User: Fold this.
Amino acid sequence: MSRPLARSQATQLNPASRIHGDLLDLPPAARARVQPGHAVDWLIDTLLASAGDITLVPVGPLTNIATAIQKEPAILEKIPEIVIMGGAHDHGNSTASAEFNIWMDPEAARIVVNCGRPIRMIPLDATHRALVSLDDCRALRALGTPAGEAAARAVREHDAGEPMVKAYEARWRARLEESLYRNYLIKERLKDDSELGPALEFVHFACTSEDINNLSYALMLSQARRQVLLPKLDELTEQLRTMAHEYAALPMLSRTHGQTASPTTVGKEVANVVARLLRQREVLAALPMPGKINGAVGNYNAHVAAYPEVDWPAFSQRFVESLGLDWQAYTTQIEPHDGIAEICDAQRRIDTILLDLCRDVWGYISLGYFKQSVKAGEVGSSTMPHKVNPIDFENAEGNFGIANALFEHFAAKLPVSRWQRDLTDSTVLRALGTAFGHALIGFDALSRGLGKLSANPERLAADLDGAWEVLAEAVQTVMRRHGLPNPYEQLKALTRGHGITEQSMREFIATLDLPDDARQRLLRMTPGSYIGLAEKLAREI
Assistant:
């Protein structure tokens, strides 16, 4: 059958070409003649015509067998057993729980498993426990056949030693730390090397596992900062900078404590965010990335016992700095993680700035200051079809929140370790990628949301025209300059708690004993023109 029984054709997310040999020189395929008719009919005819029983051993989805059983139930009398390669117990390979052969057509699997014949399942878990060693590879190659050679290469080269990793995991995981049983793998890979084989015992020489782990994490974070975090931040900052310049002159009513306040421009408010991000970028980029390699408690005890004549601190410094890291001279068994805490704090501040922006933009959309472009096919509300919800900014805010909760925990927990070391940092460090992942999702969602925005000048102007009271600041400041009595109190009596119109403000200005040029400047002023240096500041960012 060309499709599953009860659903549309699924797409395999984990294609098997990586193990079926697309990258290997396999023996040529057999030239079997294509059988006439449909595969289901061929199954039925073959089973019914057979003089004896036939055990079915399907190695793929069960669609054809299920269809044959439904079409001709009499074939079951010819089937003593069905051995299925499929299913999973611990975890799947198409989803977290589903194995591919069953996942592709679960309805067919239901029919076959319940057909009344004995079923034997060989689940995915069994293949994970079928370990192949280097000795097995040698034995396969020694067969001298194309198939043996291909099988050996598949294990030794194509899968990059993963079966050997699994073998050593099974043998050593119960007794050894991760970095140590990886050393046994390294030794196995090097033992036949003419140059390196004699030096096997210098693998992991005088090291504790944390000598390896701290350098690995430092290198991963350094690479992530250089190749992912800073470029993402730069990309978003440039998007905001462009927006600041585009709207540099577009006036907007400010709100402090939720109340109308001295006007600004849309571009200047975006420029504020750009300036904050630029400062935090400098901090993030400049942070050192410490690393250490100094043994079990940081004193080079074993190093000195073996080679007392070596300057081990100098050796350690050269090695760590050769990796592009900053040498940490004083440690216990673990590098104290202050550097990781600093990076987490820096990223948390960046996320907080962007979370603040998300909430502000969400509010401006609510006020009508921004319009959002409509995406075809997107649903704003299940019951209110008119809505265009600010979902990108809400998505970004949520992800920044999750990331920051983790970053805050990392920064508080990782620098704390009992005496010369406890293991609480190990499980926490494994979640670093989760935190940065949520931050990156937030970056993408925010960028996507910004790309949908366009300012609404009419709504911005309407709010400004209804807020003439914001000129009270300008009027009382000019009154102070020219020595008029009680300027603040006069404007307070005029504006506080009262509705101020253009007319009432102009009438008040006309009564003031001011130089004519100062009075005329105030009379020409409007809420939309009272923006100070906002436009200039926005363009200069």
Notes: The two ends are 63 Å apart (CA to CA). DSSP finds 24 helices and eight strands in the chain. Residues 171-176 have pLDDT under 50 and may be disordered.
